[in-house]
Design goal:
By secondary structure, the protein is mostly beta strands. It folds into three domains: 31 residues; 281 residues, TolB, C-terminal domain (Neuraminidase); 104 residues, Immunoglobulin-like (Sandwich). The strands form eight sheets. The chain has a four-stranded antiparallel beta sheet, with no helix packed on it. A four-stranded antiparallel beta sheet has the order 4-5-6-7, with no helix packed on it. It has a four-stranded antiparallel beta sheet with strand order 8-9-10-11, with no helix packed on it. A hairpin with a 2-residue loop joins β17 and β18. The longest helix has 30 residues. The protein starts with a helix and ends in a 10-residue tail after the last strand.
Length: 430
């Protein structure tokens, strides 16, 4: 009976532990913010399955799935999704040495881009905004340099040179692709992305500053610094180095014996959030690193992962769609008889980040005082009243269309429809 009771007790304890753990996961997931964005647009490394693998997830932390499946001692790390969402670049030692690899976004068709000999390691690969280049650091010990390479493995170019400095790591592309923010020795520098020229030093605290990330509008840079208590924390500064502020300060009431570290920041495509890797040992008693997100303007942080060691989440560097043209049919209403006329709009949109951006009418105005002169009937159709004042040159309707992609980035364009004063002002297309 004692043996049976002992087994029952262990089973009950295990069941309670599983219930408690499931409740903990549910609680964490319930607190995850609803962040808009493309599905599986965030890549990160996780050891939750017993080996360091590349995972992807949605902006709010849902849909966490692996994209590599290897066995120890292989380590897959520091991934990033391409701007068009079709590929993932990452570093792996699957051939015995850390090299740069590219695979399709579903984990298929893995291709090795670099081939070097130990002890040289290649890591921290980052896509250029147009997806044409991958920057990474390569070296060993205290000798590292920045390189770039095409996604097909061609065009390998050394960006930083021995005359610049011996230690260059953690490249980050500016939104226009012309500059890289890198760690040089212990500070953040800006350099030209093509040849490493025109270096500008942004930090000078005498501590480690690295892992920079540009805001989508290029005005700010998030980075890791150890200037506070010699512990990693995420800082944010202006692109010229001004206004350096601690983005993840340790709370005053946080237990002194507990670990509080933050590093490897990256911005959401709309610039509203910053993701980062952190240890909060009060929440996670085994002190594993997890992925957190926090509003860029300040506020509470939210944890997105709960299992294993998770690190270095990167967000797809999506761009807003380009509205190449916007046309209205008809674009002239005649005769001005006061009747409502159906008008259809066609938007020609180019978007490397999303093949199907959503366009819709968001505003209608007129150069005349009007009342009940228009009605939006669908995303790109509306009825306009064929009416104008006889004392003016004619009525001009200005229709605004907003096109938004899956990363919640938008572009705006306008088109006009005229109700001319007379037939002399009538244009073709009426």
């Amino acid at each position: 009976m004692k043996a049976i009771n002992s087994i029952s007790a262990r089973a009950a304890t295990a069941a309670f532990t599983m219930i408690a753990f499931s409740t903990f996961i549910s609680t964490v997931k319930a607190d995850v913010p609803s962040i808009p964005g493309a599905a599986h647009s965030i890549a990160f490394a996780s050891s939750r399955d017993g080996n360091n693998e590349v995972f992807v997830m949605d902006p709010g932390g849902s849909g966490q799935v692996p994209r590599t499946e290897t066995t120890a001692p292989t380590s897959n790390q520091r991934p990033e999704v391409s701007p068009d969402g079709s590929r993932i670049v990452f570093s792996s030692n699957r051939d015995g040495n850390f090299e740069i690899f590219v695979m399709d976004s579903d984990g298929q068709n893995v291709r090795q881009l670099t081939t070097t000999a130990a002890p040289v390691a290649n890591s921290w690969p980052r896509w250029s905004p147009d997806g044409e280049w991958i920057a990474f650091h390569s070296g060993s010990g205290t000798n590292f340099h920045i390189y770039r390479i095409r996604p097909d493995g061609m065009g390998l170019t050394q960006v930083t040179q021995p005359a610049d400095a011996a230690f260059n790591q953690f490249p980050a592309w500016s939104p226009d692709g012309t500059r890289l923010a890198i760690r040089r020795n212990t500070d953040i520098y800006l350099i030209d992305s093509a040849d490493g020229a025109n270096p500008i030093r942004l930090t000078s605290q005498g501590t480690i500053n690295q892992m920079a990330s540009f805001s989508p509008d290029g005005t700010r840079i998030a980075f890791m610094s150890t200037r506070v208590g010699n512990a990693p924390s995420v800082f944010v500064m202006d692109v010229n180095g001004d206004n350096q502020e601690n983005f993840t300060p340790r709370p005053l009431d946080y237990p002194s014996t507990a670990t509080w570290t933050s590093r490897a920041p990256d911005w959401s495509p709309d610039g509203q959030y910053i993701y980062y890797t952190a240890v909060r040992s009060v929440e996670n008693t085994n002190s594993n690193e997890q992925i957190y997100v926090k509003p860029a303007g300040g506020g509470a942080e939210e944890r997105l992962t709960v299992l294993g060691v998770n690190s270095e989440a990167t967000v797809r560097k999506a761009r807003a769609p380009t509205i190449a043209s916007l046309t209205a049919t008809p674009n002239v209403l005649w005769t001005p008889n006061g009747e409502m006329v159906p008008v259809s709009l066609i938007a020609d949109v180019i978007d490397i980040s999303d093949t199907s951006p959503v366009c819709r009418i968001t505003d209608v105005t007129s150069n005349e005082v009007t009342e009940n002169a228009w009605e939006i009937t669908s995303a790109l159709t509306l009825d306009l009243r064929a009416e104008r004042s006889g004392r003016r040159s004619g009525r001009i309707y200005i229709i605004t269309v907003t096109c938004t992609n899956s990363s919640q980035l938008s572009s705006v364009a306008t088109v006009t429809v005229a109700v001319p004063h007379d037939q002399r002002g009538r244009k073709s297309g009426g």
